[in-house]
Amino acid sequence: MEFLRDRGFAYAIGALEFADNIRLNVIDRLLPYYSPHHIKKNADSLEGKLCIVTGGNAGIGRAFAEAAVQHGAHVILACRSMERGTRAAQAIQQQHPAKQAHVEVRELDLASLRSVRNFAQQFKGEHRHLDILVCNAGIMAPPERGLTPDGFEQQFQVNYLSHWLLAHELLRQDSSPSSSHRRAESPTLAEPRRLIFLSSMTHRAGHLDFSNLQLERQYTGFKGYANSKLATLLAAQEWQRRFRSSRSARHDIAVAVHPGLVDTELARGWLTGSDVTGNLLQPIVAPIARILAPWLLISPRRAVDQLMYATTGPASKVAGAYIAHGKW
Ligand SMILES: NC(=O)c1ccc[n+]([C@@H]2O[C@H](COP(=O)([O-])OP(=O)(O)OC[C@H]3O[C@@H](n4cnc5c(N)ncnc54)[C@H](OP(=O)(O)O)[C@@H]3O)[C@@H](O)[C@H]2O)c1
After folding, report:
1. What Pfam families has UniProt attached to this entry (predicted)?
2. Is 77's C-beta closer than 6 angstroms to any atom of ligand 1?
3. Of 24, 30, 125, 287, which residue is most buried, by most CB within 10 angstroms?
């Protein structure tokens, strides 16, 4: 019963999404050059923008970083491993040799609030105007409850809390002379910033019980993940509310995105792990799930469509929105 209460609705929507993914994967394989119209229409709209992507070395973050570079942005990959970050940056540079200088790698470990503050302080010291912050990095459903060095349940901190702090430090303290000048002179002409949070349809299974926020009691990996994604969605809405009521930031935009069920380490790990099937069935179900994954999950390239829309879509449609399943 508890299993159904926790996950029933999210699993039902997930099943529908798997079915739709099979349809999309068939289209992708038959029509490989198909690309949704809004990407083509906005192909140049990131020219000159500065974008930070947390977890930009893998999965959705990596695919988005590459698309952003391709469309003219300067991208900082904020990664917990400099080695993995550098490898990803080199791969993007090889794909786009004319844009070698458009990718940077910085160290950011979201499991450490100190690392978040260090990252923000370094960036702030450079007095550059940040246009887009993509709060993407995440972990999903570790079977055992683990704490970060700061003492928080790890999904709560990595997926939600550290991203909140990062946004707070970077946006509050955007003191670049060009930015403050533009904002002071004319808030309507200032380049509005976009704050994008990767949420998930699993937020529907979330339940934020403030007497058990760190899940000291009745921990399951999925519960922790769903709660962190609900908190992330609420964070986007709270940021939008704060932007609207601020004089200098009233044109800034916060938005939450469910990228789809995407073929990445995170989704594959969960699909083939014991969290879905239980320990007994896992050895049988995991190999089947591994074979089916490329059909049940969409490619990271396709997931970028949703993020690109959050980044470049019209403010009137995107501000404060939850973008999911191609709808906003
Ligand atoms: N895939 C899906 O179906 C799906 C669906 C809904 C929402 N999402 C969300 O989309 C986002 C990206 O997920 P993904 O599927 O692309 O997963 P992924 O391929 O596993 O990538 C996750 C990224 O987060 C980074 N990361 C993990 N812990 C970190 C930490 N402590 N500090 C800094 N970076 C950290 C990872 O770095 P390392 O490479 O060093 O591990 C990696 O770069 C997540 O927020 C996820 O919840 C995914």
Report:
1. adh_short
2. no
3. 24
Cβ distance 72 to 101 under 8 Å?
Answer: no
Q: Which residues, at least 6 apart from 233, have a Cβ–Cβ distance to it below 8 Å?
A: 197, 199, 203, 256, 322
CA nearest neighbour of 53 among 102, 113, 97:
102
Catalytic residue among 160, 219, 225, 309: 225
Q: How much distance in Å is there from the Cα of 312 to the middle of ligand 1?
A: 22
Domains of the chain: 2-262+298-323 (3.40.50.720)
Is residue 33 part of the annotated active site? The answer reads no
**Is 115 within 8 Å of 109 (Cβ atoms)?**
yes
Please tell me the residue having the least CA distance from ligand 1 atom 44.
138
The protein residue whose alpha carbon is closest to atom 1 in ligand 1 is 262
